[in-house]
Specification:
231 residues, binds pyridoxal-5'-phosphate, alpha/beta, globular
Length: 231
């Protein structure tokens, strides 16, 4: 396994220094290692190095990895676009789904979460504007979706997630994340008990931590470039 050189220590250092710089407590921040398109051996190496949380974007790709690490105590986070024909596998094999963006998906996940498991942790994915991705609920519709999710018995609404457009400088990155944080604050004021802001990737984790991220999703900086992803 040792031929995988992981950037894990470097990423932890970045998280730690961002916390110092922006007055955050490192204990509030969960590092999710995003292992999409990485081989099982890379996941095993990261788990051996102490990673407890892994993120995957494709259900079919994730299942063999989840099975191989069964019993190891790691948590699996689904962070990709979820199609309704994949909700059963997601509800059965993952601990978290970060990308709930419509009620239909939420209802299916709740109905399909196996009775022997604790409620599925979910975040609502918010589309803040800009960019390519059409995934995510518009900010105006987040409250309605939060109400629907909070009413479902087998889901536990944890917070909000976003995937903002790439920006070069820290201030521009921070503006996107600040918008998600304000939306989370508004939902809290409306009575929702939210403890999670899932935001920040390899290129913008400092900005996300500055704006209150509690969970960062880091792929490239942990594992290196994704094989076959063309950068
Ligand atoms: C791929 C991916 C990440 C990780 O991106 P890196 O830039 O490799 O750190 C995080 N979140 C989501 C939703 C992703 O699809």
């Amino acid at each position: 396994m040792t031929y995988f050189s992981l950037g894990l220590d470097r990423v932890k250092e970045r998280i730690y220094s961002a916390c110092q710089r922006f007055g955050r407590d490192p204990a509030e921040i969960t590092l999710v290692a995003v292992s999409k398109l990485q081989p099982l051996e890379a996941v095993q190496a990261a788990a051996a190095a102490g990673c407890r949380d892994f993120g995957e974007n494709f259900v079919q790709e994730a299942l063999p990895k989840i099975e191989a690490l069964a019993g190891s105590g790691v948590r699996w986070h689904f962070i990709g676009h979820l199609q309704s024909n994949k909700t059963r596998d997601a509800a059965t094999h993952f601990d978290w789904v970060h990308t709930v963006d419509r009620e239909k998906i939420a209802r299916r996940l709740s109905a399909q979460r196996p009775p022997g498991l604790p409620p599925l942790n979910v975040c609502i994915q918010v589309h803040l504007g800009g960019e390519d991705t059409k995934s995510g609920v518009e900010p105006d519709a987040a409250r309605g979706l939060a109400e629907a999710v909070a009413g479902l018995p087998r889901l536990r609404l944890r917070g909000l997630m976003t995937l903002p457009p790439p920006e070069q400088d820290l201030d521009a990155q921070r503006r996107w994340f600040a918008r998600l944080a304000r939306l989370r604050d508004a939902l809290r004021e409306a009575g929702f008990d939210l403890d999670t802001l899932s935001m920040g990737m390899s290129a913008d984790l400092e900005a996300a931590i500055a704006e209150g991220a509690t969970l960062v999703r880091i792929g490239t900086a942990v594992f290196g470039e994704r094989p076959g992803a063309g950068g």
